[in-house]
Amino acid sequence: MALLETPISGLFLFEPKVFADERGYFFESYNQRTWEEAGITTVFVQDNQARSTRGVLRGLHYQVGEMSQAKLVRVTEGEVLDVAVDLREESPTFGQSYAVLLSAENKRQLFVPRRFAHGYLVTSPTAEFFYKCDNYYSKAHEGGVRFDDPTLAIDWQFDLSEVLVSQKDMVLPHFGHHRPL
Predict the structure, then answer these.
(1) Burial letters for 105-130: b for 16+ Cβ neighbours within 10 Å, e otherwise?
(2) Residue 90: CB partners within 8 Å, gap ≥ 6?
(3) Residue 162 sits in which domain range?
(4) The dihedral of CA 32, 47, 181, 108: what is its sign?
(5) What 8-state DSSP symbol labels residue 177?
(6) What is the structure's pLDDT at 37?
(7) Most exposed among 11, 70, 156, 164, judged by the fewest C-beta atoms under 10 Å?
(8) Which residues in the chain come in under a pLDDT of 50?
(9) Domains identified in the chain, total number
(10) Residue 84 maps to which CATH number?
């Protein structure tokens, strides 16, 4: 599995080595030893999966305090534009975002550390989104930032007037007014 650095410290993109032949393919989607050799000692405790249709935008979400979560995200069907925003106030990349296309075809995975907001937009007819978390979900610790925040100016590469967003995500605060981590 190749570890690719992103412009944001702690945010990593992984490309698995895929073994393909006439029967199909095989790859390791997760190997704790490989991650530890890359310096990531995160222990995952919860897996989540979501199915969505084209134009669904989920995010930007995070959890605060002791319930903060790191995530390892990937797509098992279709494709999404995946976005992570650095919310670490002490970071030189505070407020910066990173976007990458994740798909069943490219099999890439994004490691999103704690204290990042995260979201994705489905760009294929449907998508199955799968992610591991290093902490349990806690409604009391939810936080988020508006996907269309003008300060963040995220290029979702999609007409935002056509996205499907939950009511919960539509009322998230703007960057700078979000729940402190």
Answers:
(1) eebbbbbbbbbbbbbbbbbbeebbbb
(2) none
(3) 45-170
(4) positive
(5) S
(6) 87
(7) 164
(8) none
(9) 1
(10) 2.60.120.10
In a domain, 110, yes or no: yes
Q: Which of 25, 181, 34, 29 is nearest to 109 (CA)?
A: 29
Angle at 20 between CA 4 and CA 6, to 5 degrees: 10
**133 located within any domain:** yes
Q: Which of 173, 165, 127 is nearest to 149 (CA)?
A: 173
Catalytic residue IDs: 61, 131
DSSP string, 20-64: EETTEEE--S--HHHHHHTT------EEEEEEEETTBEEEEEEE-
| pLDDT attached to residue 1 | 66
Q: Name residue 168's amino acid.
A: K
In a domain, 101, yes or no: yes
Find all residues with CB under 8 Å of 57, minimum gap 6, and list them. Answer: 119, 120, 121, 122, 147, 156, 158, 163, 164, 165, 169
What's the pLDDT at 146? 97
Parallel/antiparallel/unpaired status of strands 97-103 and 126-133: unpaired
CA distance readout (Å), 134 to 1, 23, 47, 103, 154: 20, 34, 9, 22, 26
> Is 6 inside any structural domain?
no
Token pair listed for 33? 């030893």
